[in-house]
Amino acid sequence: MCLILCKPVVCDHPFCVSFYTKMGGMRVTLLNNDEDHYLSVINYQNAVLTDLVEYNKKSFEAFDNLLAEAKSLGRFLANTRHADLVMETSITDEQIFSSSTKEDSYKYELKLIEKFPEALWKERGFSIRAFVQDKSRESVYLHKFPRFRVFLYTMDEKPKLLNLNVAGKKVLRGTIEAEMKEDSTIYFKNLVINEVSSHYTNDAFQIVVANLNSSAVKPLILSGIHVRARRLVKK
Predict the structure, then answer these.
(1) pLDDT tens-digit map of 147-165
(2) What kind of architecture, by CATH, is found in domain 93-228?
(3) By C-alpha distance, which of 136, 156, 138 is closest to 206?
(4) pTM of the entire structure?
(5) Which of 74, 79, 55 is CA-nearest to residue 184?
(6) Residue 23 pLDDT class (50, 70, 90 cuts)
(7) Is 127 within 8 Å of 191 (Cβ atoms)?
(8) Which of 36, 1, 31 lies closest to 16, judged by CA?
(9) Does the chain have fewer CB atoms within 10 Å around its N or its C terminus?
């Protein structure tokens, strides 16, 4: 008999195993007509039943908490629209920088959650938090195309994608790709730019966040970002 499930089945619950092991030893004592142990057996059974009630109480409380969290998540997802897009090729430079002249061609738009600084430090980490909204300014979850990426461009009239710095090392590293969460947010936790902007046109960069598989999402373009050399700490 399983005390946890209250069913006539063999189980390996530690609680049940401990109970029947001890009861088996007590039964031998009782069969030998040692009446002095009757009271201890009854007390032990009462203690076991008390523990069992407490165990079941905690189990039901844990279940209620899980159920409440599931209902809360369900209500949240019900208020978040799930968008269906058509698969397209990876986004190109032309698609990114034509966004200002083709506003009507986008169904969705990336927006910053937190204000982004105009100046950064070389080789010092920073983060980007963004979300996607539709033309009604409602947040949407792109469940078919959740992958986004950060790119670094020059401020030239025809922006150039930067992959390597002047020393031939990766100019942008860290969490350059991230997947959209179901609350429609995208979080690039730790990004590092390994170059100062003074080596490039207008002493600034453009940081671009774009969807990797759909041109229906307007890229987020952060222009005029200055990157300075790290200050040396005097000892």
Answers:
(1) 999 999 999 999 999 999 8
(2) Sandwich (2.60)
(3) 156
(4) 0.60
(5) 79
(6) low
(7) yes
(8) 1
(9) C
